[in-house]
């Protein structure tokens, strides 16, 4: 759940930008049919089974437009929801409910879709030591929402942004002149509290990463036999992450490796939305 400080500093401005995108000057449709304030109610209804996520953001859209809007929730983030389930009831100026509807639903549908997909993927790792991680493959200006949704779905967050940790990928390694040089330069530059992760693509790079004493070694797009060989060579001398086109369709085949982490960009870039509607708007 987002606390008040996070909402004010990091969330409200993003929601406001989304609202300005949808209401550049006025809501012509609403103002045409409802020129005066009229208090009404509407129902938030789920149209698909899944994991709900983003209720606080959904509410915030409306309360930024009008603090007097009231939302009564019958579910909470992380709950399983089912088709036709009544999840909340909104009360307030119907002009506000109409104008904020699409933006609020966009957040809720997207976040719930990510949470639902993450939950499906995370189930394959139950009973293992392996943690499911997201990546930075997020929608611009929506990372805070999408990474939160991953956690609600049962996944874990990798680094939040480029300032959050050292990850030496193929182009960093090429620029530095090799794995050993890249790790040494990172150790010389980065604060000691930062772990250093290295992306490797073959056994030669694995051996270099171990010799350079990298904290985490990411096996990127390697086949299963190569990953097995790498795990035996690393032998606990570094934490190990597997990455590269990981989806719910193939993650089960990776669990026997015994790696520490499996990261999947699909959690955020390929999750379908959860179908949700705001219905039954009426005056009271």
Brief digest:
The chain has helices at 4-22, 28-33, 55-65, 94-122, 143-152, 170-176, 179-189, 203-211, 224-234, 266-269, and strands at residues 39-46, 50-51, 70-73, 80-81, 86-93, 131-133, 166-168, 196-200, 216-220, 239-243, 261-263, 276-283.
Fold topology:
Blueprint: H1 4-22, H2 28-33, E1 39-46, E2 50-51, H3 55-65, E3 70-73, E4 80-81, E5 86-93, H4 94-122, E6 131-133, H5 143-152, E7 166-168, H6 170-176, H7 179-189, E8 196-200, H8 203-211, E9 216-220, H9 224-234, E10 239-243, E11 261-263, H10 266-269, E12 276-283
Describe this structure in words.
By secondary structure, this protein is α/β, with parallel strands linked by helices. The chain folds into two domains: 4-121 and 272-283, Quinolinate phosphoribosyl transferase, N-terminal domain (Aldehyde Oxidoreductase, domain 3), CATH 3.90.1170.20; 125-269, TIM Barrel. It is 41% helix and 20% strand. A six-stranded parallel sheet has the order 6-11-10-9-8-7. Strands 3-5-1-12 form a four-stranded antiparallel sheet, covered by helices on one side. Strand 8 (196-200), helix 8 (203-211) and strand 9 (216-220) form a beta-alpha-beta unit. The mean pLDDT is 96.
